[in-house]
Structure formats: structure tokens, C-alpha cells
Amino acid sequence: MAARGKSTTKATTSPAASSAPVDHDTTIPRLGAGAFDNPLGYCRFMDDAARVRIELTDEEVSGLSGNEDLALSFELAGPRAKVFFNPKKTKCAIVTCGGLCPGINDVIRAIVMEAYHAYDVAACFGIRFGLQGFIPRYHHDIMELTPDSVTDIHEFGGTLLGSSRGPQPPEEIVDALERMNIGILFVIGGDGSMKAAAAIQAEVARRGLLVSVVGVPKTIDNDVNFITRSFGFDTAVEQATRAIRSAHTEALGALNGIGMVKLMGRHSGFIAAQSVLALKEVNFVLIPEYPFELHGEKGLLSALTQRLTSRHHAVIVVAEGAGQHLVRASGERDASGNLRLPDICGLLRSAIDEHLNTANVPYTLKFIDPSYIIRSVPANANDRVYCGFLGQNAVHAGMAGKTGMVVARVQDRYVHLPFHLVTSAQKRLNIRSDYWRAVLESTGQQHLGPDLSECPLPGEA
Span of the secretion signal (predicted)? Predict the structure, then answer.
């Protein structure tokens, strides 16, 4: 049910999560009142006062106790009757940042098509190779985007514009926006990119410029807080199940065959968990949120030995960030500032080899890492539809003068979320939830170490 008014709740997501309250204000900044009639004449316009009240659970917001729900009122996405920018004089820019993800080209295409065909904007530019493309010293050319140039890009994976990682000075980026006379900047990227977009918007506001900054959250890991499901996730799961099916076939093809599949998921195990639910052939799933034990009576090695003894094959799915408590980190960071994760699958394979050889259990292990295949493929039909809505709603928001926000689908509604909400934390899988229970029931695995009640909730130390 739609509700009017703004939500300005301030609450602590978890006693252990932070000493400071999390700001749950859902108000969306706006550059000013609309002065121009929206050229769209065939649709229902959305009133700025139209809001929807949504009850969020621990599967959408990290840091909730599991017994607690968070009810917030969000501004609905969609075209406004009056727009802030004069369409025929408005120039837009699109930038893609971070790792690849199925559907990026679909979002780019949707933005360009909507901007030209629905609003007849003056121009739309693509910034090459992420935020570096704004900085003159990198010498990246700007790409003009037209309906003709983006017509077929949704048939291909990756990003037409290229991408890069790492921060760039917001002052230099805003300098470039001023030079190019950009009215609306669309940022497609993950948590770090949305933080960068927030810094750009803050610099724009400090200078008193009339530039709208609109984000489209992108993460293949589905770990953006407050967003039910990120684009590309459905495609990633579909591709992951193909690798798992191959691992299962390999495992069945040998006495005591083991198929091990490594999937993406630095901090969250959503791809691994959803893939397990989609394909009921996995016996063990290891995710970052659950600190499993390797040795001992309750450990993975003991459970694996029992599985091979009784069924003579096993399939193990491992999220890349699982088991980090078992390995020593190098302390090195990538260009985005993320810690470089040690190879958990290498450790598991060595430990399995030593354990089964000591127990005189013959085995064959086939290891599959489909990560770069998964993230580089074109989006499937469901994700294409989703990306289309995101791109269209991003243009509607930008033309209306909305700024400092992302367009997102929360549950089944397309809404506007302020940057500070989606960057407040990374969404984690709650292993005390019904969802994780369903995963365990699908695999049949027992608790590999500590009881779930002893494990920290997402957001807790």
C-alpha cells in the first residue's frame, strides 16, 4: 500500500554492528522543481508524494536480529509530469565501474534508448574505462552513445564502455562534468562505485552545480544492502548450475569421485546458496558467513569421508570468500582496496588429499572454477527485463532532477534509494534464516563445526 510522507527512522541495525545509529532517512535530494512538461504522453505519471511502505527482513538488510523487521517508506520510481531538465538541452553521461556482471550492456542500452526516444536529449556520452575516463592524464577518449551504436550490445557480455577499479578524485571528475556540460551522470557499479558517486554528488552540491547523479547498483554477488536481488544474479546462478552439473557428472564417473566448484562471493554466499537450491546435486556448500571446521569429528573432512563411504561420490560448492578463518591473508589489497583473498580451494584440496590418503580411501577430485565465464556472459531473459526497467527508471529520475540516489527493485517495487542506505553495509546471508535452513536441507549436510546459534549475525563483529 502506498504511503505519503517521508521515513526518517534512525535505528541501530545490531548492538554489535556499530556504536553509531544507522540513518534510515529515505528522502531523495532534488535539484529543484520541475519546470518543463514531460514529453511522454502515453503513460501514467508518478507523483513525487507517492511512496510505498515496505517491511524489510534480514534477507534484504544486514544487521537485523532475525526477529526484527524494518519498515520504511520509499519514493516510487517512474516518470514525473514535470521534469527539471530541458530535454533538448540536456547532455547525459554513463560510466561503468568495477568487475563485470551480466546485464551491464542491457542497462547502458536501456538508458540510451530511453534518453533519446522518450526524452529526445541533446546527447549521451559514454565514459571509457570507469572513473579513469574523467581524468585527462589517462587519455581515454569519450564515446558518443546513440540508439544506432547501442542497438545490439545487449547480445554481448561485459561492458561496451570498459571498466576499471580504484578511486579517483571527485574534484577532477566534477571538473570534467563541468567541461562537458553534463546535466545527468549515470553510475553503474557496486558498493565502492556508489560511494564514489556519493562523493561526486557531494562535490557537485558544494559547488552549487545543477548536475544529477543517479546510480544503478551492480554486483554479481547480490550483496547490495536493501536491494532484494541485483541484476545479473539470476544469470550468474543459471551459469553456476551448469558448472555444478558438470562437477556432478565427473564425480559419478569415478569411484569416490569428488567434484569441487568455486563460485564468486567474497563476502556473501548468495550465488552458492541459490545455485545449490536450483540444482539438488550438491552435498556440501561453504560460504563466507559460516565459519566451518575442517578437522575433527564435526569437520568437513570427516563428513566427506562418511559421504564417500556411503555413496562413493560427492559435490562441494565453495564461495571464494569461504573459510578465510582457516588461511593466512597476505594483507595485500587490489585497486579497489579489497583484501586479496587467499586460495581456500587450494587449501581444501591439499587437506582432502592428505586426509583421504591417510585413511587409505582412493579418490579422484575434479576442480572447476567458472568465475570469469559466469560474469562475462550476456544476461538471460529475466535479467534483461530487469535491466530494462532499471535503465528506464534511472532516466526518469535524472530528468526529474533527482540526485544522490539509486534506482532499485525492493521486493516487487521499483523505488528510489538514497546513496547512504545502499552503502551503509554489505548484505550478508543470514545463516539463522529459513533460506539457509532450506539450503542445508537441500544438501543434507550437517553443521560443520559451531552451532548456528553461536555464529554472528550479518553486521555483528
Answer: none
